[in-house]
Design brief:
The structure holds two protein chains of two kinds. Chain A is built from no helices and eleven strands. By secondary structure, chain A is an all-beta fold. The relative contact order of chain A is 0.34. In chain A, the strands form two sheets. In chain A, strands 2, 4, 5, 6, 9, 10 and 11 form a seven-stranded mixed beta sheet that branches. Chain B is 0% helix and 54% strand. In chain B, the strands form two sheets. In chain B, strands 2, 4, 5, 9, 10 and 11 form a six-stranded mixed beta sheet that branches. In chain B, strands 1-3-8-7-6 form a five-stranded antiparallel beta sheet, with no helix packed on it. Classes of the chains: A mainly beta, B mainly beta.
């Protein structure tokens, strides 16, 4: 099995453009998460989904939106990118939304110019 | 919301020595504390976790201790090896609020041969 995958691996984006980061898992995990990782700040939760059809805001949701139409996919959209959204983005999943191990994808490195 | 502080930010140890990383958290309701290891350019991976009903947990050369009264928890790595070189992140969450992790800023550990 592939586990959890993300696309693209990296992207350079002009400020003001929109972008969707893709995340897919084949582990049938109910819960999924999006984090951003900035140097010295660790990982910060952007949005999460406890189960298909539901989403919630994390610590830093502004400028991002998500959807969870099915169990496997959890795309993250930047409607109008700004340079402060330059970061490494990690998608993660866990069996349930309780305190289960979160498994991370390989990450997407996004640069907004 | 929850705030997690992690110290030190960098740690250099001689191979075979022990390494200790400390984290403090602010929300007394937090009751789940995982530790993740991230090698350079890779995704974070869970190495050990502890729940608030126990004070210590060990897994081979790795141990975590928790002091709920003082609201701090620590990661101990004994007999360090070069492959222990990585960035380590602590995190905290409240089980009743879902698997929404708040991460510390990370500790870069370098094990010198």
């Amino acid at each position: 099995t592939a586990g959890i995958t993300q696309a693209p691996t990296s992207q350079i984006l002009a400020a003001g453009r929109s972008m969707t980061l893709r995340c897919t898992q084949d582990m049938r995990h109910n819960a999924m998460y999006w984090y951003r990782q900035d140097l010295g700040l660790g990982l910060r939760l952007i949005h999460y989904s406890n189960t298909a059809g539901t989403t919630g805001k994390g610590e830093v949701p502004d400028g991002y939106s998500v959807s969870r139409a099915n169990t496997d996919d959890f795309p993250l959209t930047l409607a109008s990118a700004v340079p402060s959204q330059t970061s490494v983005y990690f998608c993660a999943s866990s069996v349930t939304h309780y305190t289960d191990t979160q498994y991370f994808g390989p990450g997407t490195r996004l640069t907004v110019l | 919301g929850e705030n997690v502080e992690q110290h030190p930010s960098t740690l250099s140890v001689q191979e075979g020595d022990s390494a200790v990383i400390k984290c403090t958290y602010s929300d007394s309701a937090s009751n789940y504390f995982p530790w993740y290891k991230q090698e350079l350019g890779k995704r974070p991976q869970l190495i050990i976790d502890i729940r608030s009903n126990v004070g210590e947990k060990k897994d081979q050369r790795i141990a975590v201790t928790l002091n709920k009264t003082a609201k701090h928890f620590s990661l101990h790595i004994t007999e360090t090896q070069p492959e222990d070189s990585a960035v380590y992140f602590c995190a905290a969450s409240i089980e009743a609020a879902g698997n929404k992790l708040t991460f510390g800023g990370g500790t870069r550990v370098l094990v010198k041969p």
